[in-house]
Amino acid sequence: MSVPIDVSDEVLSGEAVAIDVQPVGFLLRALGAVIDMLLGYAVFILWIFLRIWLLDVGILDDTTDRIAMISALVVSFVVLPITMEVALKGRSLGKLAVGGRIVRVDGGAAGFRHAFIRALLGVLEIYMTFGGVAVLTGAFNARSQRLGDLVAGTYSQRVRTPALTSHVPLLPPELAGWAQIADVARLPDRLARRISQFLQSAPRMVPAARARVAHDLLAEATPFVSPMPPVAPELVLIGITVLRRERERRALENADRRAERLTGRRVGV
Q1: 115: nearest Cα among 149, 65, 66, 146
Q2: Is-cis flag, bond preceding 227, omega within 30?
Q3: In this predicted model, what pLDDT tens digit does every residue of 105-139 receive, in sequence order?
Q4: CA-based angle 110:10:115, to the nearest 5?
Q5: pTM score above 0.90
Q6: How far apart are CA 68 and CA 60, in angstroms?
Q7: Which of 9, 32, 67, 92 is the least crowded, having the fewest Cβ atoms under 10 Å away?
């Protein structure tokens, strides 16, 4: 059974193809924001201690102290977030921790203008209200966008993905004879993808659900397979996958040989 994709989580490519992307969840987004907040406050507190020392040694007076205080506020809460997002291409210390990146709503890379807008509004919704406005805004939209994101046209996209495990199915011994005579037609791309995903996740599934999904997938694949071997549905799906893989490998090898022959003829000419 396929899982419907929320339209709000799709990005259209230049060819109008929907690309499934995942925004960072609300709780992870909040955790990343807290880390960035603490960084900004830490930089400002360091300046407070430095200011006390500069006043003691007489380097700062009342006038220069006010100017330096305003500069410290701007650097800690505006310049620092902008610099980090631009330098790290949409990342920050908090986003690195939660595996997110700021991108445009169309999936493109965010730039200086987006970081500038987000930082300016961040002073209001994050630092002046201790994140209150950002929490209220992010809790009521699908991509957990804060006010700065809504104005800048950005959101935090998940970029940390689990490591891919190598799963190369092998032909079951029970299907060795069947593979010599089997005729497996080209499967619809969606069905082939679902079968591949099932075979990768099958070892982690509950036995009853595993058997049911294998039976349903084989029922969809039956019109493309002849003859049908009298073995368990999951073994048939493995056999279909192996035969498709071998057929695609041979097709690629034949294409490479044809390309080599054509290249040799052109060189000879």
Answers
A1: 149
A2: yes
A3: 877 788 999 999 999 999 989 888 888 888 888 88
A4: 15
A5: no
A6: 9
A7: 67
